UniProtKB/TrEMBL annotation:
Protein name: DNA binding protein
Domain of life: Eukaryota
Gene3D superfamilies: Glutaredoxin
Keywords: Membrane, Transmembrane, Transmembrane helix
Species of origin: Hibiscus syriacus
TM stretches of this protein: 20-41, 53-69, 89-115
UniProt entry tagged with the keyword Transmembrane: yes
Length: 256
């Protein structure tokens, strides 16, 4: 049922979001070019292209199935599926004509420049905060004891891929003792230094998640030495385990 809901949500985005709509038109154009080329290409090349298309479809389905199992977010799965699709499409056009290959490389480059993959827009039980609002909430005595805050930026591909995790996490674990907040470092870049986040040229530390107890930082992900070890893909399970959210929830239920 959840997969069907995600599918309908994505189909709606195909029409409404330029990123998905432009990719849809680009892939659709291949079938138009392919049908026109069938009248021009020699029978040997046509047969060879057909065999490679079958191989590409099978390889794509295998990779898509693998990513569907491994990826927890729909945004991450779609990003990977589009990437694989572009690789296979470009490889197939090489069989027809390298000028066509160059045209598709330029086309996908233009799409990359003018349109970004939209993030998951719903907030769940989390709240969008400015740095000043966050600072005030952490120092006030009448607010929840714990705050888990996601620092993100809309121009970071990692943030867009993981944008669904935090709202879903907040729905499961939000209570009177634990609240969830989101700070957009794209809107407030000066807050990065204040909270010890070093985006760098590759935006490798985004998104960053910090758990506060009152106004004291308890834990963060990724750690300060994130460059020493590869950061695994962000999932709700990973965040719940890293910040021990099940323990915090049990403590709240038991009145501790």
């Amino acid at each position: 049922m959840k997969n069907q809901s995600n599918l309908m949500e994505w189909l709606n985005q195909v029409v409404g979001e330029p990123y998905y709509f432009f990719h849809f038109l680009a892939f659709l154009s291949y079938f138009i070019v392919r049908s026109s080329a069938a009248n021009i290409l020699s029978p040997q090349i046509t047969q060879h292209l057909f065999h490679r298309e079958i191989q590409a479809i099978l390889a794509f389905l295998m990779l898509a199935a693998y990513k569907m199992v491994r990826e927890e977010t729909w945004e991450g799965f779609i990003a990977d599926a589009l990437f694989f699709g572009k690789i296979f499409l470009i490889a197939l056009t090489l069989i027809m004509d390298y000028h066509l290959t160059l045209w598709y490389i330029v086309l996908f480059s233009v799409i990359y420049v003018i349109a970004q993959q939209p993030p998951f827009e719903k907030l769940g039980s989390s709240s969008k905060l400015t740095p000043l609002q966050l600072e005030a909430l952490l120092t006030e005595g009448n607010t929840p004891r714990f705050w888990l805050v996601e620092f993100r930026a809309s121009f970071s591909s990692g943030c867009r891929r993981a944008s669904r995790c935090f709202p879903e996490l907040s729905i499961t674990y939000s209570n009177k003792n634990l609240s969830f907040g989101i700070v957009d470092l794209g809107l407030f870049p000066n807050a990065a230094e204040k909270f010890g986040i070093s985006p760098g040229g590759s935006m490798g530390q985004l998104p960053t998640y910090i758990l506060f107890e009152n106004d004291t930082e308890v834990s963060r992900f990724p750690e300060f030495n994130f460059e020493a070890t590869p950061t695994p893909p962000i999932t709700t399970r990973l965040l719940a385990r890293h910040f021990e959210l099940d323990r915090l929830l049990l403590e709240y239920v038991n009145g501790k």
